[in-house]
Amino acid sequence: MSKETSVKNKVQEWLSSQGYSLEMVVSKEFQNHNFEVRQSHYYEDFQTKEHREIDILATSSDFLGYAEVSFLIECKISKKPWILFTSDNTISGYNRLFALGITSEKARDVLVQDKSENLFKSALFKKSGRIAYGATVAFTNGQDTAYKASMSAIKAAVGRKNELSSSSRVFNVTFPVIVVDCPLFECYLSETNEVIVEEISESYLFYHNHLDKEPATCIKVLQVDCLESFCTEAAYYSKIFLDIFEPEIKKEHHKIARGKQ
Question: Structure pTM?
Answer without folding.
Answer: 0.90
